[in-house]
């Protein structure tokens, strides 16, 4: 399709632990369309950031297999000089922690100018400064001329994150990867930054990959959602369906474990067990199996695959068909289990 | 009688300056906070970073020096007491935010959890070990865990070790400072459920400090909202969420992401309105220094910081 910006096929990102490589991202296939916000949700250790870093080519020592197709490049094996042309120009990234993403010794203006300078040498100094001030203004920072001269430590967390965003969008990237962009921020600042990213998306015509663990952020921002567990995508679906009709047991468990208004002060759902460490991940069978032990073994597939259960709605493994929470026995199944 | 009563608490930190290191000014981290907590309930203290919520909690338990104001625990004054308040130290415990830095990495779980016992109880080694095993069982960890070190546990398990330590002396009040903000949602659910369980079991009172309104709503009976060291609004959970009065509270409530994607436009609109109102009527809610006014009652349980004349 023409409006596909990025197509990922069977991506596998492995890290070396001891003598062996272990896949943190294990056979992920995804595509990002134009003008779309694709959210990748999951808990720590599910591989969502490893996936984002693979797309940006930021892994140093990982072994990356599979394809990431962007225009006529396969990002998995482009060389570093091509990367330095693409990264920051066609592909922008917003990092989680604005304090470590910025250089404390450079003024805000200099850092944004650098991003422009590296990809566009034709601008004169005056033009570049004008562009930088325009960018600072665009991300909603008041008094841009003043902030141009300031250092990151003089700004608040929300303002710093706006600077990081200004750097990411400086060269009008086609693909923007936002790795937990609001996790380090306060609630009111979070909503401002999310509103900003949404506005920018409309004016920029870019595709955004939003990495987050916060389902509230997903509900506010995403068009399409990929839920990851233990390195694999377990469900991909558009955002409305995700909240109306989640299917995979992991997605349903996650949704059930957030405190919300309707549930009042009832007990929250707890997912049994823990996410296994990378070395101990079950590589065969349904990876979520151990965390829903009350579901019959036969409900799982031996090699779980993504099934298209409705147009655009993919779910891994067949266990979703028989899944129920421990406190709500399914009819007919109550007998089988007793 | 409330189990904890705080009256006009102030914690000011000096700013040193000049060549002689004289005090040139003060940071008024907490500036006139009063609250009462009834036994067996959970009181939520909400605010953004820098609002003074953590300082309030730490001042109550004695980790920050109180500049002025009074703290009463079970009717007795405990403000800035040191050695003489041993029983207060037993009865009030704290759960810290970060389970990675609040457990000594060089100590075994046994030593971590037994430390309060060693301070306050005279127990033989075997009694102590037995008690620690009981505590670990209570927080859902296996008794073999006592010989392990903190790094061998996941975040949620570590937080439960912190809780085991906090409940070792059967305290009456626990100050929980952002106990779940470092945890993933599913682990967070586990810790929150667990806190509710031990509350019932041990008839505990919680002072729950958090920036996450969703969690606060889930856990608390009463809520105080802080802004720059002062309360802007205080009331029962229903008062705060169904009938927020102060513009700052409204802003906080509006900023909670809506979990229903089809209401996206509405919540954006709502945020814009509140933001507009915030800019328009800022002067009606805050004095010249940008601080909140004193609390005025608007119902028996609900207090809002509004100018005197009303």
In percent, how helical is the residue content of chain B? 25-40%
Fourth CATH level, the homologous superfamily of the domain at 1-90 and 175-180 and 208-338 in chain A = P-loop containing nucleotide triphosphate hydrolases
- Write down the CATH class of the domain at 1-90 and 175-180 and 208-338 in chain A: Alpha Beta
**CATH H-level name of the largest domain in chain B... which superfamily?**
P-loop containing nucleotide triphosphate hydrolases
Oligomer: heterodimer
Plain-language structure description:
The complex is a heterodimer of chains A (338) and B (310). Chain A has 338 residues and is of the alpha/beta class. Chain A has a domain at 1-90 and 175-180 and 208-338: P-loop containing nucleotide triphosphate hydrolases (Rossmann fold). In chain A, 32% of the residues lie in helices and 24% in strands. Chain A has helices at 48-56, 80-86, 98-101, 108-119, 125-138, 144-148, 157-169, 187-204, 215-221, 239-244, 249-257, 333-337; strands spanning 4-17, 20-33, 37-41, 63-70, 73-74, 91-94, 175-179, 207-212, 224-229, 232-238, 306-310, 313-316. In chain A, the strands form two sheets. In chain A, strands 6-7-8-3-9-10-12-11 form an eight-stranded mixed β-sheet, sandwiched between helices. The radius of gyration of chain A is 22 Å and the shape is globular. The termini of chain A are far apart. In chain B, strands 6-7-8-3-9-10-12-11 form an eight-stranded mixed β-sheet, sandwiched between helices. Chain B has a four-stranded antiparallel β-sheet with strand order 2-1-4-5. In chain B, α4 (125-138) packs across α5. Chain B is an alpha/beta fold and 310 residues long. Chain B folds into two domains: 4-228, Rossmann fold (3-Layer(aba) Sandwich); 245-310, no CATH class. In chain B, β7, α6 (185-202) and β8 (205-210) form a beta-alpha-beta unit. Chain A binds chain B through residues 43-44, 157, 186-191, 194-195, 213-217, 219-220, 222, 239-240, 242-243, 253-254, 257-261, 263-265, 267-271, 274, and chain B through 48-49, 154, 156-157, 184-190, 192-193, 196, 211-215, 217-219, 241, 251-252, 254-262, 264, 267-268, 271. Chain A: It is found in: Cell membrane. Chain A: GO terms for molecular function: ATP binding; ATP hydrolysis activity. Chain A: Residues 6-255 form the ABC transporter domain. Chain A: Its main location: membrane. Chain A: Belongs to the ABC transporter superfamily.
């Amino acid at each position: 399709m023409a409006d596909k910006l990025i197509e990922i096929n069977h991506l596998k990102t492995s890290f070396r632990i001891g003598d062996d490589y272990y896949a943190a991202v294990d056979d992920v296939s995804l595509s990002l369309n134009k003008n779309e916000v694709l959210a990748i949700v999951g808990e720590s250790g599910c591989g969502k950031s490893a996936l984002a870093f693979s797309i940006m080519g930021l892994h140093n020592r990982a072994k990356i297999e599979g394809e990431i197709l962007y225009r006529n490049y396969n990002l998995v094996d482009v060389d570093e000089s091509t990367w330095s042309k693409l990264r920051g120009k066609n592909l922008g990234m917003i990092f989680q922690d604005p304090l470590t993403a910025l250089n404390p010794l450079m003024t805000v203006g200099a850092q944004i100018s650098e991003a422009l300078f590296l990809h566009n040498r034709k601008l004169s100094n005056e033009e570049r400064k004008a562009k930088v001030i325009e960018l600072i203004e665009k991300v909603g920072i008041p008094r841009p001329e003043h902030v141009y001269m300031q250092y990151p430590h003089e700004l608040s967390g929300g303002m710093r994150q706006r600077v990081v965003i200004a750097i990411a969008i400086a060269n009008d990237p086609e693909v923007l990867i936002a790795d937990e962009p609001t996790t380090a921020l306060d609630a009111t600042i979070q909503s401002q930054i999310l509103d900003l990213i949404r506005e920018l998306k409309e004016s920029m015509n870019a595709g955004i990959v939003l990495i987050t663990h916060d389902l509230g952020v997903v509900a506010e921002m995403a068009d399409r959602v990929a839920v990851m567990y233990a390195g694999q995508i377990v469900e991909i679906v558009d955002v409305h369906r995700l909240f109306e009709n989640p299917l995979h047991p992991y997605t349903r468990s996650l949704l059930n474990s957030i405190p919300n208004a309707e549930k009042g002060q009832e007990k929250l759902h707890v997912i049994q067990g823990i996410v296994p460490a990378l070395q101990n991940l079950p590589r065969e069978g349904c990876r979520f199996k151990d965390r829903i032990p009350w579901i019959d073994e036969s409900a799982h597939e031996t090699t779980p695959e993504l099934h298209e259960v409705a147009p655009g709605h993919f779910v891994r493994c067949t266990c979703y068909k028989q899944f129920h929470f421990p406190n709500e026995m399914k009819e007919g199944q109550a007998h089988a289990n007793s | 009688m409330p189990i904890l009563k705080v009256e006009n608490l102030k914690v000011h930190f000096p700013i040193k300056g000049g060549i002689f290191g004289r005090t040139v000014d003060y940071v008024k981290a907490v500036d006139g906070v009063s609250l009462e907590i009834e036994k067996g309930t959970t009181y939520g203290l909400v605010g953004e970073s820098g609002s003074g919520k953590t300082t309030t909690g730490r001042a109550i338990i004695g980790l920050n020096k109180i500049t002025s104001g009074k703290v009463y625990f079970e009717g007795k004054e405990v403000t800035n007491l040191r050695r003489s308040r041993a029983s207060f130290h037993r009865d009030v415990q704290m759960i810290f935010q970060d389970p990675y830095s609040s457990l000594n990495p060089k100590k075994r779980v046994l030593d971590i959890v037994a430390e309060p016992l060693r301070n306050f109880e005279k127990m033989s080694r075997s009694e102590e070990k037995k008690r620690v095993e009981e505590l670990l069982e209570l927080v859902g960890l296996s008794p073999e865990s006592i010989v392990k070190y903190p790094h061998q546990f996941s975040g949620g398990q570590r937080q439960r070790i912190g809780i085991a330590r906090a409940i070792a002396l059967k305290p009456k009040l626990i100050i929980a400072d952002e106990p779940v903000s470092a945890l993933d949602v599913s682990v967070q659910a586990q810790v929150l459920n667990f806190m509710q369980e031990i509350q019932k079991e041990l008839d505990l009172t919680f002072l729950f400090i958090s920036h996450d309104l969703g969690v606060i709503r889930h856990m608390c009976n009463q809520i105080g909202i802080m802004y720059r060291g002062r309360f802007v609004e205080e009331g029962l959970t229903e008062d705060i969420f169904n009938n927020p009065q102060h513009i700052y509270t409204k802003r906080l409530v509006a900023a909670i992401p809506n979990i229903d994607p089809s209401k996206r436009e509405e919540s954006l609109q709502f945020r814009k309105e509140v933001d507009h109102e915030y800019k328009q009527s800022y002067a009606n809610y805050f004095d010249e220094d940008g601080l909140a006014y004193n609390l005025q009652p608007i119902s028996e349980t609900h207090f809002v910081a509004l100018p005197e004349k009303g």
